[in-house]
Amino acid sequence: MPDPIKVDRTQVGIIGAGPAGLILSQLLHLEGIDSVVLEVHTRKYIEERVRAGVLEQGTVELLTEMGVGDRLKREGLVHHGVEFRFRGRGHHIDFQDLVGRSITIYAQQEVVKDLVAARLASDGRIVFEAQDASVHDITSGAPRIRYRKDGEECELVCDFIAGCDGFHGVCRTSIESSLTIYDRTYPFAWLGILAQAPPSSNELIYANHELGFALLSMRSPEISRLYIQCDPNEDIANWPDARIWEQLHLRSATLDSGWKLTEGPVIQKNIAEMRSFVADPMQYGRLFLAGDAAHIVPPTGAKGLNLAATDARVLARGLVEYYSTQKTELLDRYSEICLRRCWKVQHFSWWMTSMLHRIPGESAFDQQRQLAELDYVTGSRAASTALAEHYTGLPFTM
Ligand code: FAD
Ligand code: DHB
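YS: structure for the whole thing
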């Protein structure tokens, strides 16, 4: 390894400017703790990357308390319920009535924009296009991150490193030999589109249909976000817009009169794999993993971004305790606290996924069982309350 040309120091070195890394950096800043965020991509790239859209009420409250809630409050769409559609009929789950809580639709890239703006406005350091990051001496008191910026070898000496570099990052793989990995892939994927079309409903619609799952979501009063279940090996080239719309129409069709799916020009299209993944523990020495770097959930429960936010919140608390008292009690419990929540969210996401998708090879019995489960969940106040509690977000506990 060549000698670094530029050596810098910070209290917490954060790898990855996704929701986990940026929320952590902002929370630390509010407590007077210095951090540097290293991001492999450009600012434009991370501010335009289309991903999640559903924020739990607790995530909205956290962002608001952190001082990045103004635009979210103005532009976010507050939803008090969700619809499940099966056997051609819609069934409304009223979050407000059941648990007195709500969710907000606000695109992940908008959350990222707001956080980047807040960090830079208070002279926060974010190094974009930081190449080939690697972590060193993580069991010592002075772990280091090596990376390259504009062709220069750089080193960041830290007290702690936060691995917030997503599922394909370097942090987890650097310590994988000391982790237990729980992994499950699903035999289907989601084909997602963004369309210049006003949403067809005021609420999200999750549809179980014999042709496969469909989800009708939105980003704004003008933009719809729509998904259909497809084969994981599917080539997007086999899905011209007309075929996608046809499937969306068929899978969301309802016997209730007066409802119609709105169409419009497709402005973005992608296929996302479905996976459940947990790395245990989420810490090794002074390297702490947060968000997708440590765990992945299938998107059906809309939980990934929210789980990343709670990890950042727990880690920030642990670091604040350390810098104010020199105690490591919370940091020592970081993994246990996060994994306890993570496994409940894993279960919810797996359950929603299993209830709503056509599973290749499933029998007619399995399909009837799925429909009975949907019938029960939407018909029983006890069952809908459990769903509403999970969907709007479990309480934050330490
Ligand atoms: P990321 O957002 O992945 O951020 C990691 C960052 O690290 C990235 O900016 C990356 O460029 C950077 N990075 C990676 N490697 C390196 C490196 N070596 N050096 C420096 N930087 C690096 N979740 C929900 O809650 N609700 C939803 O509705 C939802 N829908 C989704 C739809 C899709 C299509 C996808 C793909 C995901 C969805 N998710 C959803 C999941 C959600 O987007 C993720 O869980 C969330 O992005 C996790 O945040 P993170 O900060 O942990 O990781
Ligand atoms: C969206 C994504 C999800 O995974 C989900 O469950 C609900 C909505 C969305 O992108 O809007």
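YS: worth flagging: DSSP finds twelve helices and 21 strands in the chain.
IM: good catch. Also Residues 52-54, 204, 215, 217, 225, 299-300, 302 surround 3,4-dihydroxybenzoic acid (ligand 2) (CB under 6 Å).
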